[in-house]
Amino acid sequence: MEVKKEVTIYDLAKTLNYSPSTISRALNNHKSISKKTIKLVKETAEKVGYRPNNLAAGLRNNKSKTIGILVPHLNRPFVSTLISGIEESARKAGYNVLISQSYDEAEIEIANARTLYDSRVSGLIVSLAMQTELYDHFKQFTDQGIPIVFVDRVPKTYNSYKVIIDNYTAGYKATKHLIQGGCKRIAHFAGSQHRNVYEDRKKGYVDALKEHNLPIDESLIIPFKTLSFEEGEKATKKLLKMEQPPDAIFSANDTAAVSAILCAKKMGFSVPEDLAIIGFNDDPISKIVEPALSTISHPALKMGKISAKRILEHEQKEQDDLLTEVSVLNTEVIARASTRPIN
Amino acid sequence: MEVKKEVTIYDLAKTLNYSPSTISRALNNHKSISKKTIKLVKETAEKVGYRPNNLAAGLRNNKSKTIGILVPHLNRPFVSTLISGIEESARKAGYNVLISQSYDEAEIEIANARTLYDSRVSGLIVSLAMQTELYDHFKQFTDQGIPIVFVDRVPKTYNSYKVIIDNYTAGYKATKHLIQGGCKRIAHFAGSQHRNVYEDRKKGYVDALKEHNLPIDESLIIPFKTLSFEEGEKATKKLLKMEQPPDAIFSANDTAAVSAILCAKKMGFSVPEDLAIIGFNDDPISKIVEPALSTISHPALKMGKISAKRILEHEQKEQDDLLTEVSVLNTEVIARASTRPIN
DNA sequence: TTGAAAAATGCAATCGGTTGCAAAACTAGA
DNA sequence: TCTAGTTTTGCAACCGATTGCATTTTTCAA
């Protein structure tokens, strides 16, 4: 197959009788190049089909105008929307977006971090795998002054940007919402307590119970591995077969919550009368299930945009030693039919 | 902020008293380097924290071991799963994945194609924007021998790899499924007829009716712009208010189909008795809605993996002039509760 | 021991932009 | 017209890895 020779700034230089430096500067609107020259260069570049080689520029500058993303799973509503937000902001600023998924495994996360580093990303946006507990694989970025934004699932201690929601308050609000509906025995579908998001949601749940003088019943707090549909069904079955079943469930995600609704209905319980249920995330399924699932909003798109912004801004900043900088977004209870109206 | 100096092959060369060429070859397991040297080089590289610079290698080779993806929207179940499949295969082969979304606008698609080209992707995987009709922006890739895989939404004529399902047959099967359930007045939610997927689904629908001697009623074929929930509601309302409303709907996607179920129920029709409904894609919501939505499977993950494979294989191939090479995947009717059992 | 073939390694150019500094060209006031 | 200052442009090194070809080293049969 014949491959057309690509046009480089050297070709442009020859054509226009300028030096490559001038061409390069003209294309980048360098202030020391006259407007006349800039115009001429750009027009010619357009005409002859010149295309910049990002690899060359990236090599010279040791960064690639690329944001790396490291998430557990790409095909989840929250994550794919988060990425959509990142992509939108990045693209507007002329940045590319490299993606990778860890499948919630620390080992893969580590490998992917390496690869993204090797591609000299300008910044990294990470949502941690379920079981990641060591953060050494992020040090390579920090050492090179490459900004990292942890989003949603963040490490407790690592020094960097973070974009999160207030999971504690969200958990508190969700639980309080159930209490205000008259629920007294509230179960909780808890995610991995290694991850801040699930840990905090649970804490909010516990504190809401305490504040309303409801007992904490450990048998009502179900530890989940992945908060999957199947796990949700199993847990619901178990709960509803108890001698004294709960009258409500606060699930740490929507998937498990929806499975609880379906399972409860199948077992003859009515939702929300016998069992009120509230989820977390406002996934698309939460609007579709019947009764529609009350849940907690999760501003994925916005979190994505802010994460990207942090990286892009970082380029401008004076690189003092990087301090932790946390953005906390608002969430709210979305009351639908799966919980009882507030008294 | 202090930035640690990065280790290059030159540093390794100095340390080990070899030339950079030998280091490079050793790291790449070149056959002309002794196993002893390879071992030594690799161990030292590991020890001193050497990290390859993909930009440098990419510049030299004029390609970046990166697959570019161009899709309409990232946060849709089909697309995000497709990408997940691409990412998985690409990663295994040591390739990175660059993403971009066109928001279904040809103009953005063109701009993104440029950017991906400028990053010297090794291959491009595209699902076309709704209104794209000119394909000039793909020529730059073809001219450079960069393989393009069109997936799902593909151009009719462009010469390249294609990974699709048989939309015609799928549309035919979906319609036939309704007919076999006893439906006689079957409406169709049709997508943009510029895109093969929607055009072919409609053709399958039309032919199924014809073959079963059912009349084609143009008033039952509703043209959609985006097949959104809102559009679906509106269309359903309109249909059910007709003097002689349809007894079934074949929707070209699940979103509109689900909205039809909900809308029909709200209007007092029972599904599937009064109105049978079948969708397309097997999105997560289709399992959740009640009655559960019958639909057509869409092997997103597999399509992603195959698309990536096409790109990766292409690298090996003798680059004869690229011919069109089409992979057609199987789909099947997933019968759930929103359609009537087959007689 | 010698010579030729085979194996291992090195030289130097190359990929395409970017940029500090020097130099040239231009402007304007004296 | 001359000079100092300003604007514009060029020189050349550099980023880090790859690779064709030449050279050195090793191997082994004669």
What is the chain-wise order of helices and strands of chain A?
A: HHHHEHEHEHEEHEHEHEHEHEHEE
Quaternary organization:
homodimer
- The CATH architecture category of the largest domain in chain A equals 3-Layer(aba) Sandwich
Count of the separate structural domains of chain A: 3
Helix content of chain A: 40-55%
- Biggest interface in this structure? A-B, 58 and 58 residues
CATH topology of the largest domain in chain A: Rossmann fold
Number of strands of chain A: 12
Poorly predicted runs of chain A? none
Q: Roughly what fraction of the amino acids of chain A lie in strands?
A: 5-15%
CATH C-level name of the largest domain in chain A: Alpha Beta
From the spread of the alpha carbons, the general shape of chain A counts as elongated
Q: For the report, how would you describe the main beta sheet of chain A? A: 6 strands, parallel
| Adjacency order of strands in the biggest sheet of chain A | 2-1-3-4-5-11
Number of helices of chain A: 13
The end-to-end distance of chain A, rounded to whole angstroms, is 74 Å
| CATH-assigned homologous superfamily of the largest domain in chain A | Response regulator
Organism (chains A, B): Croceivirga radicis
InterPro entries (chains A, B): HTH_LacI (IPR000843), Lambda_DNA-bd_dom_sf (IPR010982), Peripla_BP/Lac1_sug-bd_dom (IPR001761), Peripla_BP_I (IPR028082)
Keywords (chains A, B): DNA-binding, Transcription, Transcription regulation
Protein name (chains A, B): LacI family transcriptional regulator
